[in-house]
Amino acid sequence: MSTILRQHAEEQFAEELSELKKNETNKVPAQWQMSPQSVVTYLLGGKLKNGFTITPKYIGSKRLMEIAVSTLTTDRALLLYGLPGTAKSWVSEHLAAAISGDSAMIVQGTSGTGEEAIRYGWNYAKLLAEGPSESALVKTPVMRAMKEGKIARIEELTRINADVQDTLITILSEKTLPVPELNIEVQAVRGFNIIATANNRDKGVNELSSALKRRFNTVILPLPDTIEEEMDIVQRRVESYGKVMELPAEKPALEEIKRVVTVFRELRGGVTLDGKTKLKVPSGSLSTAEAISVMNSGLSMAGYFGDGRLTASDIAAGLLGAIVKDPVQDKIIWQEYLETVVKGRDNWKDVYRACRELM
């Protein structure tokens, strides 16, 4: 078992990527590891002709994944857009792993991200000693991706200040990165492209300029359509987490996953699943990613402070933390939901008691 806390996708799924390459029958674009069709199979899962099974990385619309992959075969960059927790970063990582065999060329967007994180920086010790030179240049993931013909990833693009965002315009339009201090430019090799992720829900969002938006093809990743689809996503990710962390706990029962997903879907949608009771919506996003986090923390509680079997008391604290972001308004909303919905449900008495004990 690897001691690495979180392996890159190309390391974790190396066997699947290898099998896809060995069984390739379609045309492979320049610098790609496999064909666009194989990339979609890697994302959505399937069985190869030799009987090898590819596990699904994304559960959702095949057409959306086809659009995303086909975009990267053109000179347009890809923007994965959606609410927090809709697997934008997950899809971005796996796309880069399948296409370039390298998902680590990444810029993490924050309010403090500067131009030097996207374009290039300088080794100031060398700069002072030698003056501007190529050896003093610090190559960013974007510059390296341009030189090597690979995919660069920019996470949370809308968290980066607008003037820094626009440094991408020349890179995306001209496929060059000028270095005026050295009177040179880096020209992108075929295979280079950028996958960016963005959302418009969280605080601290900076809108993209119209000029930058035109350089991207936008694919909006939706929340899971059905409760079954969302349960499947949560179950797969939680089981994967349990294996990596070697938790001394049993696999969570589907019933516990269903209850957590039901709570999230109802509060997120502002109505119970049967459509009979309208509910107030909390301030948090209540995404699938947060449901996964609630289940993971519950597994840890069950494994280390319980008998290894996941119970309502193990997930209660996670539910409270995910739902009550505003200690005043969200707490009232959560209390009302417990009293009007959870309390009266058959087989949910343990959830009600466990959650009330923490209020």
Features:
359 residues, alpha/beta, Rossmann fold, five-stranded parallel β-sheet, two-stranded antiparallel sheet, globular
Give an overview of the whole structure.
It is a single chain. The protein has helices spanning 9-12, 14-22, 36-44, 62-71, 88-100, 115-118, 124-130, 141-148, 162-165, 168-174, 210-213, 227-245, 254-269, 288-305, 312-323, 329-342, 349-358; strands at 46-47, 53-54, 77-81, 106-108, 120-122, 137-139, 151-155, 176-179, 184-187, 193-198, 216-220. With 359 residues, the chain is of the alpha/beta class. The mean pLDDT is 92.
| CATH architecture title of the largest domain | 3-Layer(aba) Sandwich
Q: First CA to last CA: what distance? A: 40 Å
Q: List the domain count as a whole number.
A: 2
Low-pLDDT residue intervals, each spanning 5 or more residues: none
Task: State the secondary-structure class.
Answer: alpha/beta
Give the CATH superfamily of the largest domain. Answer: P-loop containing nucleotide triphosphate hydrolases
Radius of gyration: 23 Å
Mean pLDDT over the residues: 92
Shape descriptor: globular
Beta-strand percentage? 5-15%
If helices are DSSP runs of H or I spanning 4 or more residues, what is the number of helices?
17
* Biggest sheet overview: 5 strands, parallel
The percentage helix is: 40-55%
CATH class of the largest domain: Alpha Beta
By oligomeric state, this entry counts as single chain
Strand order, main sheet: write it out.
Answer: 4-7-10-3-11
Q: Output the CATH topology of the largest domain.
A: Rossmann fold
